[in-house]
Design goal:
alpha+beta; globular; 7 strands
């Protein structure tokens, strides 16, 4: 490795950690990030992130796109930087959002490993579906196997991670399967304004009269899993202060004396990821107590709770999961001592330490 160059794999060291490490030294230069054929550049000036660019985006949007490249490599080259300032947020905010997006994608990628896969509905013609919100219902109507997750995001004019999140919920509910090849027919789309044709970025650049570089001809590629950054404590709020966990298993949800301000989109997403992780802890604790035949029940209940969290039920879904596991153990005829041990184990998860 030549002097002035830092390189590595995002599987071995998360990109936000490396950017923070380099920024603390006050270096000026460029991170070159690669995943398969996809490439991106992230520019630092005197330790501050000022610009990012991918073939399809620039600025903060490009940085958030890189957050979904779950297995890739990078190298930082310390060189003079001549780049526009498209990122005005502080490094602390940028790196926190980058890490949050990676955490969120780590959960989603368990069921949606690539945005290049094609969602296809499992519903029979004319079959009605319950338990989906209007946004998911519209996505389900478009899930014919013709459009990939990334193409659906373009079609709906939404961030790809938001569409992937809805697909994740539909897959968990059994309403959608993901296919590796395009199939079916293009669905009829009703929109308030005409939808643009889905074309490669290089074609759009050519139409605009821009000169395409070799990197601008790269298309988005499959997304695979990343070794995630160290998880944040479940009890930590968005501002870093301790946040009480919801009481459950006989305790109910604690009501606050005074209402809090409505959470921002970032805080809402962070809370969703924490609640999803908490359902995993509940399931693991239950499996340590319950016999092997009951583990499948726990898995089904956890999948249902995750779907409810995505639908916006929040702590109620976590509470419901613990109660449902306890009831399921009783209905399955488990020994009374075993049920009491299960409840003790579950209550311990909600007890502030």
């Amino acid at each position: 490795m030549s002097q002035g160059v830092i390189q590595g794999s995002m599987r071995e060291a998360p990109l936000p950690d490396i950017i923070q490490l380099v920024s603390q030294t006050g270096k000026t230069g460029c991170f070159h990030v690669h995943q398969d054929a996809s490439k991106a550049r992230i520019y630092l000036k005197e330790g501050r992130v000022i610009h990012a660019a991918t073939p399809s985006a620039e600025g903060f949007d490009a940085l958030m796109e890189v957050a979904l490249w779950l297995e890739g490599s990078y190298h930082f080259e310390e060189v003079p930087v001549e780049a526009p300032v498209t990122i005005s947020k502080s490094n602390a905010v940028v790196l926190m959002e980058l890490g949050r997006r990676m955490d969120e994608w780590r959960v989603i990628s368990q069921k949606v490993p690539s945005v290049d896969l094609y969602p296809a509905s499992t519903l029979l013609p004319g079959e009605a579906v319950r338990g989906v919100n209007p946004r998911e219902a519209r996505l389900l109507a478009l899930a014919t196997g013709y459009y990939s997750v990334a193409e659906l995001a373009l079609l709906l004019r939404k961030p790809v991670i938001d569409v992937a999140k809805d697909v994740y919920g539909l897959v968990l509910a059994g309403h959608v399967v993901l296919k590796g090849l395009r199939s079916g027919r293009a669905p009829k789309v009703e929109a308030e304004e005409p939808l643009r044709e889905l074309v490669p970025v290089s074609v759009l650049l050519a139409r605009a009269g821009a000169q395409a570089t070799p990197e601008s001809r790269e298309e988005e590629t499959a997304i695979v899993r990343l070794q995630p950054p160290p998880p944040r404590p479940l009890s930590a709020g968005a501002d870093g202060r301790e946040e009480p966990l919801p009481e459950t298993v006989g305790g109910g949800i604690a009501q606050e004396a005074t209402p809090r301000p409505a959470p921002s989109a970032m805080e809402d997403s962070q809370r969703m990821v924490k609640l999803m992780n908490f359902t995993q802890r509940i399931a693991q604790a239950a499996k340590q107590v319950l016999p092997e035949p009951q583990h499948e029940l726990v898995n089904r209940l956890q999948a249902k709770a995750t779907q409810e969290i995505i639908s916006g039920e929040g702590p109620d879904a976590v509470k419901g999961l613990a109660l449902a596991i306890s009831r399921g153990a009783v209905e399955a005829g488990c020994d009374g001592n075993l049920v009491r041990a299960l409840n003790t184990q579950l209550k311990a998860l909600f007890t502030p330490r």
